[in-house]
Write a structure and sequence with these properties.
21 helices; mainly alpha; two-stranded antiparallel sheet; globular
């Protein structure tokens, strides 16, 4: 088991390398991609079943010297924060490949394979240089997929997301290098391990700048309000598989980075930034929800909806109580399932109607009842439908917000009300009413589409009906992390 995480990280890249070297035909390429994704999923399940929630700290740790002279190691491990993200990524990749099954664009398949390696590596890395390399590995495939295979000024929008992301990444890299240098100045050796860098102590001004470098990278990736102007264009231009990756996986890594490295290295400084970040999160969840109501393009509508929910997840991370933390971790997974489902369905809608504009749709329920059912289900899951995992997660975060402050709890609850408004308005216009020219010959879901959507729907129901099955294994480590953080912050709380 000491190499299982390494296999999970590099198996997709190895498949991509081998299939690229031998220039395999398209049929072998897609079979190889699916085989690698299913293999990774089985390995991720193996990690989940072997994970011991009662043990503190990282498990399945693998640490090997890499660039030894500069203290850069291949250092990976998994805990209660990273395990749900690992499982979520491993589950979604085979589903995305099934959606892409008829894609003839080979570059897209290779990009997706490399992207999975980048995402898994970033989730599991415990060395900051290694984390940065995987963080950047995610960017190039997304840039290629939007710039080459997207639509509606795709090259401009791909360049915009590249500029934003690189700006944040450079700020984070400068902070990482400075941290490693300060460790060298104190101890005479280089070290970029998360545990080692967490022992460093800086004056308040230096710490603010260093933490700010990390926060900038994570705020752009989430994206928090004010750092989001790339989002509507990128979501509007991105082809469906990369759109699912952006919303369901990559945005969650911004929250994960804030959680892992913000509290891992700069707990006091992050506590200093918390009032500002809480204001951004509250303003974002309200602003994005209002903006979603005003959209007629479904991609942009659900992009702003995702922004609102990601702001709520960020708020939960910033509130140091077990309700908010459990809710945020649970919402990372359940929102990924719901957003993957709805964006896949928006892609299917575009394939059939050649439009995702609400005013050009209508009457879908009368000609495609299976499509209408799944579309309504995933849209309502985005709005926190009771009985689904998203409802449980939102409720936990709102309870955590109320425990922190009454007015904060009331503000957090507005995201649920706003989501109900735009979702029901959208469903009425798209699924019901008279058929339009675009939906006159609308096809219902076929067997392959039912196969890829059903696991997402079932998981959303299971996570809503028996949430303790998933929350109980995560709670002990979350409580240990909170206790350690509370002891570190002391009188600041």
């Amino acid at each position: 088991m000491d190499t299982v995480l390494t296999t999970i990280i590099f198996l997709p890249a190895l498949f991509a390398l081998l299939m690229g070297l031998f220039r395999v035909p398209h049929g072998i390429l897609r079979l190889g991609a699916m085989l690698s994704a299913l293999w990774v999923f089985v390995l991720a399940l193996q990690v989940a079943f072997a994970f011991d929630p009662t043990l503190p700290g990282m498990q399945f740790v693998r640490e090997v010297p890499w660039i030894a002279n500069y203290g850069i190691d291949y250092h990976v491990g998994v805990d209660a924060l990273s395990l749900p993200l690992l499982l979520m990524t491993a589950l979604l990749m085979p589903i995305i490949y099934l959606y892409m099954w008829h894609y003839r664009k080979e570059g897209y398949w290779y990009s997706m394979l490399m992207l999975q390696t980048g995402v898994s590596g970033a989730i599991l890395s415990l060395d900051l240089i290694l984390f940065y390399l995987f963080w950047e590995t995610m960017l190039l495939p997304i840039f290629i997929m939007i710039g080459r295979f997207g639509h509606i000024r795709q090259q401009l929008h791909a360049m915009k997301i590249l500029i934003y992301t690189v700006a944040g990444s450079m700020a984070m890299l400068f902070a990482i290098i400075y941290l490693g240098y300060q460790y060298y100045a104190l101890h005479g050796v280089w070290n970029f391990s998360l545990d080692a860098l967490a022992t460093l102590d800086f004056d308040p001004r230096t710490s603010l700048w260093l933490a700010g470098g990390f926060l900038l990278a994570f705020a752009i990736k989430i994206p928090l309000l004010g750092f989001h102007t790339w989002m509507p264009q990128a979501y509007g231009s991105a082809p469906t598989p990369s759109l699912v990756i952006l919303s369901a996986i990559m945005a969650k890594l911004g929250v994960y980075g804030l959680w892992r490295f913000g509290y891992g290295i700069f707990p006091e400084t992050l506590e200093y930034y918390t009032p500002f970040l809480v204001v951004l999160a509250i303003a974002g969840l309200i602003y994005y929800a209002v903006d979603a109501v005003m959209q007629s393009d479904l991609r942009r509508m659900f992009a702003f909806s995702s922004g609102s929910h990601l702001s709520l997840i960020t708020l939960g991370v910033l509130l140091l109580n077990i309700y908010a933390w459990s809710g945020s971790l649970y919402f990372i997974v359940t929102h990924a399932l719901a957003s993957a489902g709805i964006f896949l369905m928006v892609g299917m809608l575009f394939q059939r109607a050649k439009s995702v504009t609400v005013d050009e749709l209508g009457g879908i329920a009368t000609v495609a009842p299976r499509f209408a059912f799944f579309f309504a289900f995933f849209a309502l899951c985005m709005a926190g439908l009771p009985g689904t995992g998203g409802f449980v997660a939102e409720l936990l975060i709102i309870l955590g917000a109320f425990q922190h402050n009454l007015w904060l709890g009331l503000a957090a609850a507005t995201t649920v009300l706003a989501a109900i408004l735009y979702v029901f308005w959208m469903l009425q216009r798209t699924l019901f009413g008279p058929r339009s020219e675009a939906t006159e010959r609308f096809r219902d879901l076929n067997g392959r589409e039912l196969l890829l959507l059903t696991p997402l729907a079932l998981l959303l129901l299971i996570t809503g009906l028996v949430p303790d099955l998933f929350l109980s294994p995560l709670t002990p480590q979350l409580q240990q992390m909170l206790a350690g953080l509370t002891a570190t912050l002391g009188g600041l709380l």
